[in-house]
Amino acid sequence: MTPPSNGQAAESNDHLVQSDNPEHPANLIPSLCAKFWTLGWVTGTGGGASIREDDLVYIAPSGVQKELMKPSDIYVLSLAAQAQSLDRRNRVYLRSPPSYKPSQCTPLFLAAFTKRRAGCCIHTHSHWAVLVTLILETQGAGKDREFRINNIEQIKGFGKGFEKSGNLGYHDTLVIPVIENTAHEEDLTEFLEEAMDKYPDTYAVLVRRHGVYVWGDNVHKAKTQCESLDYLFQLAVEMKQLNLPWITDIEPVTPRKP
Amino acid sequence: MTPPSNGQAAESNDHLVQSDNPEHPANLIPSLCAKFWTLGWVTGTGGGASIREDDLVYIAPSGVQKELMKPSDIYVLSLAAQAQSLDRRNRVYLRSPPSYKPSQCTPLFLAAFTKRRAGCCIHTHSHWAVLVTLILETQGAGKDREFRINNIEQIKGFGKGFEKSGNLGYHDTLVIPVIENTAHEEDLTEFLEEAMDKYPDTYAVLVRRHGVYVWGDNVHKAKTQCESLDYLFQLAVEMKQLNLPWITDIEPVTPRKP
Amino acid sequence: MTPPSNGQAAESNDHLVQSDNPEHPANLIPSLCAKFWTLGWVTGTGGGASIREDDLVYIAPSGVQKELMKPSDIYVLSLAAQAQSLDRRNRVYLRSPPSYKPSQCTPLFLAAFTKRRAGCCIHTHSHWAVLVTLILETQGAGKDREFRINNIEQIKGFGKGFEKSGNLGYHDTLVIPVIENTAHEEDLTEFLEEAMDKYPDTYAVLVRRHGVYVWGDNVHKAKTQCESLDYLFQLAVEMKQLNLPWITDIEPVTPRKP
Amino acid sequence: MTPPSNGQAAESNDHLVQSDNPEHPANLIPSLCAKFWTLGWVTGTGGGASIREDDLVYIAPSGVQKELMKPSDIYVLSLAAQAQSLDRRNRVYLRSPPSYKPSQCTPLFLAAFTKRRAGCCIHTHSHWAVLVTLILETQGAGKDREFRINNIEQIKGFGKGFEKSGNLGYHDTLVIPVIENTAHEEDLTEFLEEAMDKYPDTYAVLVRRHGVYVWGDNVHKAKTQCESLDYLFQLAVEMKQLNLPWITDIEPVTPRKP
């Protein structure tokens, strides 16, 4: 059998996206994206989501209305097959939908799966995320490369980091690196990977004037970390409007009765 | 058969709005408008939407509660028949609902269909659109006739222009012309057409203190461009509240690994 | 048959609230209130709605969770019977629900029905309405007794006034009177009636630090006027945050091609 | 039968969370939490809710996605059994879900049930609540330990206090105590109980940079008080943005016709 020259698998492999189980990635991605659309995270076909199960990666296509996506719209690729490819940009899909193009987010999702063994990665265009990166631009001396906030309960919604157990504490400072946007989304990949190397424990990277990538060990963790982060971004913007600082020095309260 | 004198077709032609296909324009306009009502785009019977399929134009009526619209509420007219009419304001409907009046937006929708060969046109009263036109009023020297924003990822949600392929880039400046509102909505038509002539590549025109008209080659493109634009209008208002400029000069980031 | 002494009809008259027609007032009030709850108009059992059909008035009870209301929760009274009552505060209900108390809004709804022949009256606690009355408080010299806005398209959503045909125009100034809140909601009635006398063409009265009463000839008009008003209140608050004036002097734009 | 050593009941007691009645606590907690998720109160697994029926307490587990909760996820414990336990921190559950951990909110919910005989307690991370506590931080001299607001109609949504009948009036000042957040949520318990002792009539306690606990005699009262409070917190933040004071001195309006 001659390999297909156009990056498409010879067989349709439609069975990979057909399941009666609502928890199957091909069903879960559409239902998650419909929810994200309502939250304003994937407006106007922006943003996206991807789930990895063992070797298989399921990805929403480019240019789809996220609240109307169907399981049959989903791309599937193999991490192992992809790793053997000499050209990172030539991706071989096990299964492609008939009428869409692959998402430009694909190599960024793959970075989370390969460098962090994530089970799910979510990309939002939430305007709270964009506003946070814009507010940071007004701060000089390299301070705009990190979003930092502490002493907010919702910070507990984040894991301590890659291969570490437990979650951040109330007094811990959550640090999310910010990378500059590039003209082409695929070109973000090397900068996202750099940020992952420099901040090995982060579960998210902000992209200036663009949005945020958030991942987690599984769908549950990626989604709830993404919700917690959007909550903190919204709070941070509202704090800025009220002239309240994101970082404070608070004396821990000690319980009297141990 | 004597032509009807009252601008109504002699036959009811109800079959034109009866279909089991949810993608039929007579079904799609109500479902779209219900979604738009939830987004705050068509509050209090304001705003509307129209779809063109070849020669036939489907239009929501005037004064209808947009989240409650039914396929039987839809007007249908023929572009060819309309073109032969000597009086632009005398429109002959192939099919009229029994208990509504035609939308005052009709000639504005027709402008998008005839001058830009659009397949769908959406009119919203989104208060983000209205606020953008109000903020622009505070800027003198004719600067209030254009909304301009650049270096925001969501700008990629717009096509490059009429009969051009491809989309705008991240560093491109999105320019949306602003026309002044008139006492009667039909009177906007000539100014909308003027703006289309002056800005041949725009897919939208803002109407001061009123809202926005957005179109696209088909329903998908009109809707996603309208969502992207509303996203940008909201972002622009929030940027204004935070004293962040809409236009910036940013050095493009070049990928190191080509 | 001895008349009931406790203001309750001897018979249950449950048939008055039982109908398969979704447009029946006893079905419509719950579905409207569920929608209003989502809009933030009737949070925490605040606000309410009433519909009149000829002599019969249907009213949501006091203290009910508005998104959970059922047709069997509805009160029904007769306008004619109420008019014969010597004591305005002693209302005889044709039908009462078993486990609720009558709404304190009842005499205010009745004022709209008797003084304006309204078919529906809506009372919201929308915080946009409350904020508008709070902003007005900061303006002295009696200027706080009226909300005024002009040159916004959505103003066209209001009728010209009681027994007048046609709607307000874009350049017309919408004037909504503001009355002071009283400790007991029933005590608002005389002030609401005074405002109706002083502003015979208004379809709404703002209540300081409380909310708004909006009515219309029928459910459609009351609801769409209430939506348009809430839209304008929200816009007015956002304009205030951006230092944009509510009243402007704009030269009308004349169409060149008549 | 030897008592289980790990804080789990020997029997599964699954029948305690199985009912066809939508008003059963095991059904009501998931439907309430789904609604709260939509309101932004329980984002990212934050917040929670608990219902008491006589001796039995039903509690949402820790770490669950609140809009996806199922009746089988609910913990059940006995107040009487808990009262006999020498160690407050060792709780014996009559029924535990197979795959979750108990909520850290449990001792705080129990405080409302035992010290106030509440029938329901709700904990939200609403960012309006958090913002109010942040704004209060900017006020010195101990003024940051109470949220105070008066002369807003929605204040009537609160009961006068523990074992008192009737509700607050329009001119009454609603006072909600604020306690400092602790690193571990369970450690809040003693401070919450202290606040209950110091403010015996309050139905809510704010937790700095964290959220709010709200309770009521039953589900209806806890939920509507929580809604009213969130409404007031949102209003208070918006008033702050517009430089409007939370406390004012207003002359009561007296009705002329008694």
UniProtKB/TrEMBL annotation, chains A, B, C, D:
Top class in the EC scheme: lyase
Localization: Cytoplasm
Region (Disordered): 1-21
Pathway where it operates: Amino-acid biosynthesis; L-methionine biosynthesis via salvage pathway; L-methionine from S-methyl-5-thio-alpha-D-ribose 1-phosphate: step 2/6
Coiled coil location: none
Stored SMART domains: Aldolase_II
GO biological process: L-methionine salvage from methylthioadenosine
Cofactor binding note of this UniProt entry: Binds 1 zinc ion per subunit.
Keyword Ubl conjugation: no
Record-listed E.C. numbers: 4.2.1.109
GO cellular component: cytoplasm
Positions with biased composition (Polar residues): 1-20
Alphabetical keyword list: Amino-acid biosynthesis, Cytoplasm, Lyase, Metal-binding, Methionine biosynthesis, Zinc
Keyword Lyase: yes
All copies of domain Class II aldolase/adducin N-terminal, residue ranges: 27-237
Residues binding Zn(2+), per UniProt: H123, H125, H210
Entry's Gene Ontology molecular function annotations: methylthioribulose 1-phosphate dehydratase activity; zinc ion binding
Active site: E153 (proton donor/acceptor)
Catalytic activity: 5-(methylsulfanyl)-D-ribulose 1-phosphate = 5-methylsulfanyl-2,3-dioxopentyl phosphate + H2O
Co-factor requirement: Zn(2+)
Family: Belongs to the aldolase class II family. MtnB subfamily.
PANTHER family referenced in this protein's UniProt entry, alphabetically: METHYLTHIORIBULOSE-1-PHOSPHATE DEHYDRATASE (PTHR10640)
Function: Catalyzes the dehydration of methylthioribulose-1-phosphate (MTRu-1-P) into 2,3-diketo-5-methylthiopentyl-1-phosphate (DK-MTP-1-P).
Protein name per Swiss-Prot or TrEMBL: Methylthioribulose-1-phosphate dehydratase
Organism of origin: Chaetomium fimeti
